[in-house]
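Worked Example 4.2. Consider the chain below.
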Amino acid sequence: MRLASLNEAAIKAGLYAGMTLADARAIVPGLAAAPLSPAADKKALKALARWCGRYSPWTATDGADGMVMDISGCGHLFGGDAALLSDLSRRLRAMGLAHRIGLGASRGAAWAVARYGAFRTKPWIILAAWEKAREADGETDGEAAAAVLSPLPVAALRLEPAICEMLGRLGLKTIGALMEVPRLLLQHRFPSRAQTQAVLLRLDHLSGQRPEPLEPLSPTPLFRARHVFPEPVEGFEAIEPVLGQLIEDICVLLGRQGKGARQLVFEAFHMDGRTSRLTVGTAAASRNPTHLKRLFREPAARVDFTTGVDEVLLACLEAQRLEDAQASLVDGRDGAGEAALFELADRLGGRLGPHRVGHLAPCQSHIPERACRRLSGLAASGIWACDKPGAPARPFRLFERPEAIDVMAEIPDGPPLRFRWRRALVQVAKAEGPERITPEWWRDKTMAGQLRDYYRLEDGAGHRFWVYRDGLFGQAPPGRGPRWYMHGLFA
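Applying the procedure from the previous section yields the following structure tokens:
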């Protein structure tokens, strides 16, 4: 067993990566060691990256030991970029995490200085403009990128070890030495075009000439509101009023653009580095603060807020156009009933689960079992549809699978006179039909040639049935006539 990773105290004690555990404990008898777990490290790093979402919505993991954030337009919320890095460093240090932070105009420059920069009094370095540091009130807002990056080794360009070794043999050991070589001459220094392109690409990433997109852990929010507590709070009772205010702020932003929220995400950042995340969705676009507040109460009851929370965020990830409806002065139909129906679906979805609440939506098919589909209660389309005017009546209850029945009917195309269903003999008093439905041969070739004739039947007690004959006389296989099925019941 060998050491894979060490903290600063272990390094000062003379230990190093690769040393056997027995030798390490001979030097430091009280050494605390734990088995290496890459999966657990990856999970913890991802959780820490989500926790960094308090500084920017664009955060992601970078390799096995790093994170990357795009803080463009975020620094002023904390009093400047330096104040943001100072707060981040203070919180990481309070959690016992050693760190090095680099801030640059490009992702490549920030990566290079964070891992290979010469840190002095602070655990972060801010790179200013590539050419020179800018002056602001007599003080520079960062160190010149060229001066900081030039002496760094070529490994800071994120090149493969084989390419770094080749550059070392050519005498190009630092970024500055590599950048002094004209690009045209540099192309003739490598045996393959792929290696040349890799070096030129990393140089462009370093200087920002080529963009390097960041894929954040969470979708980019459309609207975002935050609140910082003066002191850490515990329990949802202390957080709920603040959440209500954030919801109202988001609704104001939505109203300015004539939109309504479809998905909201609430994040609470704990002092121990955890992040509690609540996500709610709506069946229809909404900017009703009272309704949105109610949706968060059920999931919040299942979250542990007992540890201190010092900052909360509310983000709107999805929104749709929501026009103000004009109230009717004639019959009172102002859309309030439909809105109440969607709000009920939201509340039931929050309590039972969004996938357990649904409704039916029409489909472009005249086959009864295909004429509608089930949608989630949070689906945007397919509101509670009714039959088209003038269309034949459909039963209130449609069986998932038609049930075979024995029928005595007039031949060849008459309605049933009596039938046996579920061992009960039913005498038909009234019959209406047939309604002929042809098969969709383009979708299911096995149904080609099998017509359905539907009849609406009623017995002497007033019970109404929906049955159909599968096929016609003369089209069935020899020795077998058309078959009859019970497909539904009318209310």
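The chain has three domains: 55-218, 223-321, 397-489. The radius of gyration is 35 Å. Compare this with Example 4.1 before moving on.
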